[in-house]
What does this fold into?
Amino acid sequence: VIERFHASSKQEIKDYLALLLDNMTAEQRWALLKLGTQGMRVGVSARFIKNVLADYGGVGVEEVESVWHGLKPPYAELFQWLEKTAPKPDVSGSITYHPVMLSHPIEDKELDALNPELFFAEWKYDGIRVQVVSSPQGKAVFSRTGDDISHSFPDLLAEMDFHGVLDGELLVKKEGAIAPFNDLQQRLGRKNPTKKLMEEYPAHLVLYDALELEGQDIRPLPLAERRQHLEAWFTGKERPRMELSPLLDFADMESLSAFRATANREDENYIEGLMLKRKDSPYIPGRPKGYWYKWKRDPLLVDAVLMYAQRGSGKRSSFYSDYTFGLWQDGTLLPIGKAYSGFTDQELKKLDNWIRNHTLNRFGPVREVPPEMVFEVAFDSAQRSARHKSGYALRFPRINRIRWDKPANEANQLEDLARFVP
It folds into this structure.
């Protein structure tokens, strides 16, 4: 289909589109229009597509990712390789992207068995994980999912004067201090950021790791050796808009816990917790067990009141599982966010039944309910936002528990949330 569109005139495309729509099922038409208009999300991640292609071709997903960014639509070379009708595409002349190595949430039993001598500890910053590439083939900034976001950060790109591939956290830094995630959001997705925007929200990179330096692939080396290479490279000359992630000095679990407690301070809202990484770990794509862990700070909590419910998707499409909740201000509920996780299937059925029996109004797939149901909502941070009437929004909200026992008039006030905002 894609190849035919590329090779057709406007009238031919119009006729072919009409033919497709006439012969498709309702679901197929819906998917085609969503893809064609690009105005609505299909809900399929790039990683999912790469896994499907890997299964289709009988290769590892890392192999697909190793060539993905060197190819352009309609990806004819990729499909020919996966169908075994052509060799693996040669992308040596393109900008290199390496699938990132990820961590696991640490469990209590793993914490108890942790040997401090074997691990590095770093702050877990509240930014976005990126891979920066600078080589004779060009420069790029990739998200952890491999999306090229270079166009949003030309100020960082301009300072990338090296030959290598580095791993780090993208943030905004103002007057020598790391800014909250909300400031970084002002830059994300901007295709052509203005000079004023870049001056107000300057991009900054905290470096975690080195994957390549001076054309040498150092991913197989232990993390301790890669860190030595990174430090030697970093101190070789001035590196504007970049800094090394500091290694935290800890000798036992008490000192490590003390660092994590610091991350729970309200004025340290750019820190999500700690990263624990084995010093002997090679850089392995994906989420290998036993090497890297994240130990996030305790979530922030508010008691909020359910305002609206919407049907879910997939296996939850028959249930009202997406919830909008708010806090009180002068006797009025003002929305602060939405959540659709954090409850069991049994709790979902009970909530769905309550919502159906307490519906006040319907707005398409959304139902308004009376202000009676209280949720204890967990979230990572709060920020000012023009999207909600309350003026605030939550980062990563989820239902911590359902407060069947709590009267709605005892839920939190909006001013209680404001103290979490810098």
Observations:
- The first strand starts at residue 104 and ends at 105.
